C-alpha cells in the first residue's frame, strides 16, 4: 500500500532548512515595540525639557563662535550634553546657568542614559532569563506528555487528559506552525516549533523522557513517520495516534503505536448510533467528554475488591484489564478479581475524579 503524498514526505524528510525552537509559556506582557516606543518617547521628553531649560537661560551660555545662543544651539547643546559627548563649544558661563546644569541638567543626563542603556540591559537580561528558564525546564522535565499537532484533535485530546489531573507544565506541544505554538503557549503549554518527523525536533521536546506521546497530525503519512521516529527515540513510551483512513491503522501499529484511533470512522459510528438511538448517542458523547457528566475511568483493583466478582463491587464495571487482555465484566475468566487487574468503570464526574495512569503498553492485535 502506498500512502498519499509519500513522495512529498520523502522530500520533506531530506530538507534541512526548517528551523525549530522551544517556546515556554509565559505571562502576558506588553509588546516589545510598545515598550521601545515608550522609552523613546521618554528620552525625547527629557531632551525637550533640557532644550527648554537651556533656551530659557540662553543668556547664561557662551558659544565658541562668539554668536548668541539660539534655539538650534539649545537643541545642539542639549543633545551633546545628554549623550555625554560634550564638545565644549557651548558652555554655561553665568552662575545661574551652571547651577541649573548641576541641579537639573545633570539628573536629566543620568535619566537619559538610564532610559537608553536600560533598554539594552533589559534585552540582554531577558535573553539570559529565557535561556535559564529553558535550561531549568529541560533538567526537570520527566514523564511528560508530548502532543504532535495542536489542531482540533490534538487540542481536544490534551484537554481530555488535563481534565483528569495532568498539569499543563507536563505537556509539550510540537507543531510546524509558529502561530499554533504561540496559541499553545498562551494556553499554558510548552511548545516546540518544527517538523516532528525529524528526530532533532522531537529531542528538543525531550521525547526520549516522555511517558506518553499523542500524535494528531493532519496527514496519515506524516503520522507514520512521526510514530517511527518517536518509537526509535523512546521504546517505553505509550504512543497513541490518530489517522483519517481506517486502512492506515495497521501501518501505524506496525510503526510502533500502542493504540490507533480512526477519527473519520469514530465520528461516523457516533453519527450512526445517534440515528438509531439519539439517547444512546447523547450518552456516548457524555462518556467521551472527560470531566462532565459520566466518565470512563481506569483504576486498579483495591484489596477489598480482590476475589470478588466485578458485578458485586460498588462501581459500574465495564471491562477488566488483565495482563495485555481487555475482558468484559461478564467474562468467566474474571469471575474473581485479582490485585493485579485494572478496572474500567463508569462514574459520575467530580473534581476528584482521576484516571490512574497505566505505564504498560496497550494490548496489540
Structural summary, described in words:
- This protein has helices at 6-14, 32-56, 71-82, 95-140, 152-162, 178-186, 199-204, 220-233, 249-255, 263-276, 278-288, and strands at residues 21-23, 61-63, 90-92, 145-148, 171-175, 190-193, 212-215, 238-243, 259-262, 294-300, 316-322, 325-328, 342-348.
- The longest helix is centred in the first third of the chain and has 46 residues, at 95-140.
- The strands form three sheets. Strands 1-6-5-4-7-8-9 form a seven-stranded mixed β-sheet, with helices on both faces. Strands 10-13-11-12 form a four-stranded antiparallel β-sheet, with helices on one face.
- Helix 2 packs antiparallel against helix 4 and helix 10 packs antiparallel against helix 11.
- Helices cover 45% and strands 17% of the residues.
- It has eleven helices and 13 strands.
- With 365 residues, it is an alpha/beta fold.
What is shown here, in short?
By secondary structure, this protein is an alpha/beta fold.
Index terms:
single chain, 365 residues, alpha/beta, elongated
Strand and helix layout:
Layout: H1 6-14, E1 21-23, H2 32-56, E2 61-63, H3 71-82, E3 90-92, H4 95-140, E4 145-148, H5 152-162, E5 171-175, H6 178-186, E6 190-193, H7 199-204, E7 212-215, H8 220-233, E8 238-243, H9 249-255, E9 259-262, H10 263-276, H11 278-288, E10 294-300, E11 316-322, E12 325-328, E13 342-348
Amino acid at each position: 500500500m502506498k500512502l498519499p503524498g509519500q513522495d512529498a514526505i520523502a522530500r520533506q524528510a531530506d530538507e534541512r532548512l526548517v528551523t525549530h525552537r522551544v517556546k515556554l509559556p509565559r505571562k502576558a506582557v506588553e509588546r516589545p515595540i510598545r515598550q521601545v516606543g515608550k522609552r523613546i518617547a521618554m528620552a525625547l521628553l527629557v531632551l525637550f525639557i533640557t532644550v527648554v531649560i537651556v533656551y530659557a537661560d540662553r543668556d547664561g551660555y557662551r558659544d565658541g563662535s562668539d554668536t548668541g545662543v539660539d534655539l538650534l544651539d539649545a537643541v545642539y547643546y542639549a543633545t551633546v550634553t545628554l549623550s555625554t559627548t560634550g564638545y565644549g563649544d557651548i558652555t554655561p558661563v553665568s552662575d545661574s546657568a551652571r547651577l541649573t546644569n548641576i541641579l537639573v541638567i545633570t539628573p536629566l543626563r543620568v535619566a537619559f542614559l538610564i532610559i537608553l542603556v536600560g533598554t539594552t540591559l533589559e534585552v540582554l537580561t531577558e535573553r539570559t532569563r529565557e535561556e535559564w528558564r529553558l535550561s531549568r525546564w529541560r533538567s526537570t522535565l520527566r514523564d511528560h506528555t508530548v502532543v504532535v499537532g495542536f489542531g482540533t484533535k490534538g487540542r481536544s485530546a490534551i484537554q481530555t487528559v488535563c481534565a483528569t489531573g495532568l498539569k499543563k507544565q507536563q505537556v509539550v506541544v510540537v507543531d510546524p506552525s509558529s502561530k499554533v505554538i504561540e496559541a499553545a503557549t498562551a494556553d499554558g503549554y510548552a511548545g516546540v516549533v518544527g517538523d516532528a518527523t525529524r528526530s532533532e525536533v522531537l529531542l528538543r521536546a525531550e521525547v526520549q523522557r516522555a511517558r506518553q506521546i499523542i500524535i494528531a497530525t493532519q496527514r496519515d503519512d506524516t503520522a507514520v513517520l512521526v510514530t517511527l521516529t518517536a518509537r526509535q527515540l523512546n521504546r517505553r513510551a505509550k504512543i497513541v495516534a490518530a489517522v483519517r483512513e481506517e486502512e492506515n491503522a495497521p501501518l501505524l501499529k506496525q510503526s510502533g503505536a500502542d493504540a490507533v484511533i480512526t477519527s473519520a470512522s469514530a465520528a461516523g459510528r457516533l453519527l450512526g448510533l445517534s440515528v438509531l438511538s439519539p439517547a444512546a448517542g447523547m450518552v456516548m458523547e457524555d462518556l467521551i467528554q472527560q470531566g462532565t457528566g459520566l466518565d470512563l475511568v481506569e483504576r486498579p483493583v483495591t484489596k477489598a475488591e480482590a476475589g470478588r466478582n466485578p458485578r458485586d463491587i460498588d462501581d459500574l464495571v465495564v471491562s477488566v484489564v488483565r495482563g495485555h487482555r481487555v475482558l468484559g465484566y461478564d467474562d468467566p475468566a474474571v469471575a474473581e478479581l485479582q490485585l493485579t487487574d485494572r478496572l474500567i468503570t463508569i462514574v459520575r464526574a467530580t473534581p476528584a475524579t482521576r484516571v490512574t495512569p497505566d505505564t504498560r503498553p496497550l494490548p496489540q492485535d
